[in-house]
Every structure is written in structure tokens, then in C-alpha cells.
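Dear colleague,

Thank you for sharing your sequence with our group. We've completed the structure prediction you requested, and as agreed, I am returning the results in plain text so they can be pasted directly into your records. Please verify that the sequence below matches your submission; if there's any discrepancy, let me know and we will rerun it promptly.
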Amino acid sequence: MGDNLKFDIGDLVTRKSHNNDTVFIITDILDDVYYLKGQNVRLIADSYIEDLNKYDNKDIENENTFLERLKKHETLDRTDYFYIPGKILHIDGDNEYLDRCLKFYEEANIWAMGINETEEKIPTKIKTWLEEYKPNIVIITGHDAYYKRKENKDINDSYKNSSNFIKAVQEARLYERDHDKLIIIAGACQSNYEELIKAGANFASSPKRVNIHALDPAIIATRISLSPANKDIDLKAILDKTKYGPAGIGGIITKGTMYMGYPR
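Please find the predicted C-alpha cells below.
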């Protein structure tokens, strides 16, 4: 990189030290530190200028193809029947990602309430939100990261926000213990998957401690919302709809949340 290359807030960049595998947007620059947020993955980081590359848009076609595929929602027979999809409460530590997910729900004609709150405050507030909105599905997400240098993926201190997500899941399960009456989707990039499932989540990230797409929690929630309430979901099929499949999100077999009625 030449010494004259300059980066500004809002630029898209990748990191050389990570093989340029993730596209970030520069959100702030303080002294010599560049603060980064994943353009499409739920990850925040910081870097020095020496480690940054300008993003050359080489993956933009693949990303657009993925997003277009997601917009093809299931077609419902509305000639004789009416449908009541499950209600979604989406709690997100990132307001921009939240807005993208809410747009996704709107395009699928699903009722959804979005709340932007910092990850550390979610556990103390989630019960109030559940009591107010009474959702069928709740998403608890934002940003997370696994600190590999701590060398123990089983300890919550090895993660940026997994402990906050775990506490929030536990609070939600105190509100509703039945996994079919309240479906919980929890976690973000590289979260402690096993502990989130133990805490009571139906779905969680990340089994392989990989990054997840900003829309992945919304993809899971949408598929469950539009799945019949009297049938078990096709777990593998739903996970395969996400960007990184079962490496990014795993879960347990539960029933859908959509009711069908007649006549229309």
C-alpha cells in the first residue's frame, strides 16, 4: 500500500491480516486507530491503516445474488384460506442492521416490532418488552466476537457479548419456559452457541465460531413465522437458507407459529 493512500469514515475496507475475508465500513477514526463494522456480517473490529485494503467490490455480485434469493418468500394459497404468521420481536444492538431486518419482515408481510438497545442492557429490559408485545418469536442479537487469544471457547469471558445474550435468553425463559410458545433466536458473530442453547435458545450462533450475516437471525425468524403451527419445522432446510448454513447457526426442532383459517 502506498503512503499516499487515505481512508475516510464511510469507506469500505478489508483487513490483510485476515486474508481480506470480511468487508467492513469505517465508522470512526481516533488517532491512528480505524474502527470498523461489518458491511454484511455482525462483527465490529479496529485496525491500523497498515492492515487495511480498499474494498474492490469483487464479492458484490455474490452478495446481491444471496439477497435476491432471500426475497423469494414462500407463496401462500390466499384464494380460500387466510393466514396469521407468528409475531416477531427483534431486539438488536445495531440500529442499521435492525432497520434492514425490519424491511425484510415487511417484505414478507410479517408483523414485527424492532427495538435497538445495547447488548449489556438487553437482559434487564427483555421481560418488560416480552410482556408488552407478547411475541411468538424473539430475536436477541447485535455484535459479538470470539477472542481466540484466550484459547478457551467454553468460557464466556472469551467473547465480547455472549454473556449478555445468555443472560437475556435466561430472562426470556423465566417469562416463558415452553420452547414452542416462545421461540428464541440468539447470538451474533462467533457467539457461544452451546451455552446459548443450554440457556434456552431454540436457535443460536455460532456452532463453528464463524461470522453470521446481518440478516441471518431474520431469515430464521421469517421461516418459522411462516411455518404451520401444527407441524415441526424442517430444521436443516431452514438453516440452509442462511448465508453460512449450520456453521453459522444451529438449533433444535420446534413447531412453526403460523395459523391458517377458512374461509378467507
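Summary note from our side: The chain has a mean pLDDT of 89.

Kind regards,
the structure core
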